[in-house]
């Protein structure tokens, strides 16, 4: 049986599924029409992320490529750092050739 919270115009249903939230709520406008879902934030392109985050992600990709075997974290980090540095230099050279 749905519960209605009059101050927020929210209808909630209890769901017994273990992989979802215990309560699923549909927010409705006062007239009973469903409100549009909020737009999801888009992930920024990898080039827009801070340098350290790009290195962290690349090091993780290298770790996965090695079969998730521990013991080479520093090597993965240093290789990722070098790859990101080279990519940045290449991008700068494309924008400002010959400098």
Give the low-pLDDT segments: 4-24
Shape: flat
Strand content: 5-15%
Mean pLDDT reading = 75
Structural class: alpha+beta
What composes the largest sheet? 3 strands, antiparallel
User: End-to-end distance, in Å?
Assistant: 70 Å
**Rg, alpha carbons:** 24 Å
* Strand element count: 3
Helix segment count?
Answer: 2
Task: Order the strands across the largest sheet as they lie in space.
Answer: 1-2-3
The domain tally reads 2
H/E element sequence: EEEHH
The helical percent reads 25-40%
Feature tags:
38% helix, three-stranded antiparallel β-sheet, 2 helices, 2 domains
Write structural notes for this entry.
The protein has helices at 51-65, 73-95; strands at residues 3-5, 10-14, 23-27. The longest helix has 23 residues, at 73-95. It folds into two domains: 1-31, no CATH class; 46-95. A three-stranded antiparallel beta sheet has the order 1-2-3, with no helix packed on it. With 99 residues, the chain is α+β, with helices and mostly antiparallel strands.
Provide a compact summary of the structure.
The protein has 99 residues and is of the alpha+beta class.
List the helices and strands and how they pair.
Elements: E1 3-5, E2 10-14, E3 23-27, H1 51-65, H2 73-95
Antiparallel strand pairs: 1-2, 2-3
């Amino acid at each position: 049986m749905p519960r209605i919270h009059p101050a927020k115009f929210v209808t909630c249903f209890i769901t017994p599924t273990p992989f979802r939230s215990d309560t699923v709520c549909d927010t409705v406008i006062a007239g009973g029409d469903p409100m549009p879902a909020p737009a999801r934030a888009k992930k920024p392109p990898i080039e827009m992320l801070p340098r350290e985050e790009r290195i962290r992600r690349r090091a993780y990709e290298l770790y996965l490529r090695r079969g998730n075997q521990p013991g080479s974290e520093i090597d993965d980090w240093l290789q990722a750092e070098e790859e990101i540095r080279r990519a940045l230099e290449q991008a700068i050279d494309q924008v400002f050739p010959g400098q």
